[in-house]
Fold this sequence. Notes:
The structure is a homodimer. Chain A is of the alpha+beta class. The first copy, chain A, has helices at 14-32, 38-47, 56-67, 73-85, 127-139, 156-160; strands at residues 89-92, 97-100, 111-115, 121-124, 143-154. Chain A binds a DNA duplex through residues 35, 37, 39-40, 55-57, 71-75, 77-79, 82, 96.
Amino acid sequence: MTDPSLAPASGHDHSHCVADALARADSLCASRGARLTALRRRVLELVWRSHRPRGAYAILEDLSQQEGKPAAPLTVYRALDFLVEQGLVHRIESLNAYVGCPAPGLAHTGQFLVCESCGNTEEIDDPRIREAIRDGAAARGFRVRLPTVEVRGLCPDCQSRPRPETTP
Amino acid sequence: MTDPSLAPASGHDHSHCVADALARADSLCASRGARLTALRRRVLELVWRSHRPRGAYAILEDLSQQEGKPAAPLTVYRALDFLVEQGLVHRIESLNAYVGCPAPGLAHTGQFLVCESCGNTEEIDDPRIREAIRDGAAARGFRVRLPTVEVRGLCPDCQSRPRPETTP
DNA sequence: GTCATCGGGTTATGATATAACGCCATTCCC
DNA sequence: GGGAATGGCGTTATATCATAACCCGATGAC
Ligand SMILES: [Zn+2]
Ligand SMILES: [Zn+2]
Ligand SMILES: [Zn+2]
Ligand SMILES: [Zn+2]
């Protein structure tokens, strides 16, 4: 709850991020006839506790704590699978973790700038990167289905700060 | 050994790939003063059994079989860590697996075209992709340390074949 | 020879993810 | 409404991937 490791990116009102994400999820699922159940919605909210990718088991702990009773891994994984399918959440392969999508709605994969110091992860969708990959693959006769771009490095904040917050 | 799932890419003499990789590793490590021990060399050879990324435990099994006695996971992971550090092997994050680098020597990360049907994985180093990522990150003030590009899709062979070989 | 360094063996444990089975609520057809 | 199909989710067990902690012997510097 008040865990500082869950602090969002540099001083913004993160409750807005969460509220927006949930509202978009509600309307998107409604428009698609997808069932955003109470459990799935809660898991989405827990993914959005920060802008850092969160592991399934971290979410599981939060969920168990909220419920009082311990939840099973499958419960969380099934919810995450749904959220990923709906494009509400992206999986960060290099971290085995999940992060909320700030702009769901259209099918996209995005590219991720993952700060190795604070963990905050920015999703971008850069046409040049997308096209370079598409063309590079096409030049070799390769048919792209799912491009994965995850860039580790240092976010602007952590380049100025000497030794910032610890990992989530 | 004769496991068809280990068959290399469409009809080439894979023993050359392996021999070349080992020779390059020998000379590279010699020139750097890095110790390519018998164990590490054997693990490199096992990574190169095919052009598909192989999991640490698959390598572990091969190794145990060769030795007669069962090996421990750490044995393999330590060897893989060394090989990755030396740039002789790349880790494919989205598969939790390792693949031999066809062009070690200069520090590079490469981009990977991973066929979802046959598993064969081609490493490329496309300047346009590299530069697009560098510029896209720079535009957002992000300092890149380690770009990861893993593209899932269909290789040329598997686009023509209807239902090809199974997964490794 | 003595010491520091490093590779690697051994055992145990942690972290991530899925299989197999079944119950029950919702929905859809009639 | 009755009855069947579907899908969401609980439960238990297990698979897969990765590291911690500790020790020991080989190697090379001095
Ligand atoms: Zn926020
Ligand atoms: Zn997105
Ligand atoms: Zn080959
Ligand atoms: Zn390479």
